[in-house]
Amino acid sequence: MKTADAAFVYSIEEHSYHFHDKHPFNPLRLTLTKDLLEACNSLDTNKILKPRKATEEELALVHDLAFIDAVKLAGANKLSAEKARSYGLGTDDTPFFNDMHNAASYLVGGTLTAVDAVMNGSYSHAIHLGGGLHHGFKGKASGFCIYNDSAIAIEYLKQKYQARVLYVDTDAHHGDGVQWSFYDDPDVFTLSVHETGRYLFPGTGSVTEKGAGAGYGLKVNIPLEAFTEDDSFLESYETAFREAVDFFRPDLILTVNGADSHYLDPLTHLHTSLKSFHFIPKLAHELAHEYCEGRWVAVGGGGYDHWRVVPRAWASIWLEMTNQTDVLNQPIPQTWIEQWQDHADVQLPQSWYDDEKMLPVVPRKPIITARNQQTIEKALFHIRNEKPSRRPSFTQKNNLC
């Protein structure tokens, strides 16, 4: 029996994943988003699900035990600098911080909590904004990510629920850690829509990365040109998502919702606006109901304009999940603005939408759009020329009707 349509997974313990105050990956983003939803009366804090801490056995579904041991030592300041570098730790991107193993384990446990909430039938959807650490590798941390919660959750879904997963990543950076974890796996379809790696970390995610062996054709990358704006971004996302889900017919959709493709983001070169961040969850919501009985888990990811972009973008996911998008037509609550304005180094937004007069003009828009359309053609060539998957749904397989 369902408890509610959607679960919000959050706990203050997740704030311990904090490299330092000047690091762009800051748990302040979680606080600002939760506070914004509360100010809108859109989130009942009494019904928030607390994440559990992932066990070492669960971490080892994806990560090497030697890497897990290294993370523990790093968090106790007992790992040499030379050894740390071999594990991607102690870098500018992923520096040491106290008890980093436990902090990262909570983020993984949060995504597992969200997955269980959906797969045990209590909720149709779940959101865990502390997740989305998609750059973590089997034996190496990378790009602010220690343990890869999404990859672990996918392997957990496979082993515990025998589920096939469609992973859709709209972070501006390629979802490399998840893709490589399942590169030859026929039960996991990865779709990543990101800025081309010609100019941006991690440099991978080309259209030629299509998977290997039994997983060939089930890894799709849409590397967009720098300065891609809303229209071309959304055309690319919607085309690829609709064709991928129809081809693969998943049991669950897992989305990574980085908010760093926005034109104000300081780390990337894409030029979307809040318009895209309202549509991204809207399409995921629609397709989850159409193809997998509503099973949709959303996690966070990147996004480094903490004040003007991330809270509105991430709150939009929850509003979409809970059919509260009418809130987007109302002003941003003054209580939220008054609570945070003195802490911010920019003027906080008054609306859920960006002022169109402030959107940057993209002189090469026609060229960029044409190149992105060519990219879509190349990226989707394989699934357009293969027969789509036709298989029993998760409900049919498990006689849940």
From TrEMBL:
Keyword Heme appears in the UniProt entry: no
Residue span, Histone deacetylase domain: 23-319
Pathway: Ketone degradation; acetoin degradation
Family matches, as Pfam families: Hist_deacetyl
Top-level taxon: Bacteria
Keyword S-adenosyl-L-methionine attached: no
InterPro entries registered for this protein in UniProt: AcuC, HDACs, His_deacetylse_dom, His_deacetylse_dom_sf, Ureohydrolase_dom_sf
Family: Belongs to the histone deacetylase family.
Annotated protein name in UniProt: Acetoin utilization protein AcuC
Organism of this sequence: Alkalicoccobacillus plakortidis
